[in-house]
Design a protein that fits this description.
This protein is α/β, with parallel strands linked by helices. It is built from twelve helices and 17 strands. The chain has a seven-stranded mixed sheet. β1, α1 and β2 form a beta-alpha-beta unit. The structure holds uridine-5'-diphosphate.
Amino acid sequence: MPLSIAVVGAGFSGAVVAREFAEAGNHVEVFESRDHVGGNCHTKRHETGVMVHVYGPHIFHTQHEEVWRYVQRFGTFKPYRHRVRAIVGEQAYQMPMNLGLINAFFGTTMDSQEAERFVAARAESSIEHPTSFEEQALKLVGRELYEAFFAGYTRKQWGVDPKELPASILARLPLRFTADDSYFNHPYQGIPEHGYTPIVEAILDHPNVSVHLATRCSRARLGTFDHAFWSGPIDAYFEFEHGRLAYRTLDFEPEVVAGDFQGCPVVNYCDAAVPFTRITEHKHFAPWESHNSSVIYREFSRLCGERDTPYYPVRLVQEKAQLLEYVELARAESGVTFLGRLGTYRYLDMDVTIHEALKTAHVVGAALAAGTPPPSFVVDPLG
Ligand code: UDP
């Protein structure tokens, strides 16, 4: 007998669970508060013809072959390697940290092994178990590189001292002693030929799925379904009864320029004195297209207010207690499963979101079929 399923949020998390339940023969209603699907991955053609990543740069990269195969079902991904430059003072460097950056920064011509020994000699090896972003960076690359490339950018991005941030944030960035300047290490990388929004639309395009845009669904209404999935902010589900969890939001200052602006998709401005964190030049996300003009976004990060779009869960060490209160409330709730970046308050990439959504649909689907209560979380938000 088909079940009635509610899904809140039409980003990758919501779309993937909706699709899985629809394909299993259930009726799925998706409620999205914005007027478009795709969440913060939403893309849109600008009047210049350039495909714009409306909520900032999104590059699809994954180590999960099944996730890579899954997304190909819904559109063409073009080969794409992300390249970033970082500006410190008056000088531009390759980013992430590689042989080119190290030699340019220290004014040397070291080979790989020399550079590795050189950085190891500067790294603070006395830090055995780094707990913060700062300790992790000092242990990895030492103070000079940390101060130049990470300290200022990270303060601007997160609004706090890197001593207060989790070490895990730095693990996102590779450190290489080769000339490889590709931003990601993953074997599967690409960008959808026509942007992300048509991919999410295609995932949701199933006769058993109805999508309600610009529509919020009350908790009371969610209770009328056989089961609900919540990919919105976990604190919003509980109407902020333990206060608001901290998120960072972004402001973009768009500008249209003739020709080419910076020759690559993203340039990071690492100095604290520059108010923005990075400049994105969108047409470089689609190197298979050609445009006479260019759209650039200067990106500014700040604390997310009540009316702003949340982007990054801050997850400071002292926020753990507040998060725990929400997790306990969620665990006591029946009939709803929380998932995704906002639903589990974790800094997730698109591919991890899809991977977890597939797993969540599988586990919840099996529980419903067996007549046992599905879990509130399939992936532990505190893990
Ligand atoms: N980061 C930095 N300097 C850089 C690039 C990154 O300090 O030039 C730090 C910063 O704290 C940032 C984190 O590394 O938030 C992760 O960077 P990533 O490029 O993955 O951020 P995203 O694209 O998700 O905003």
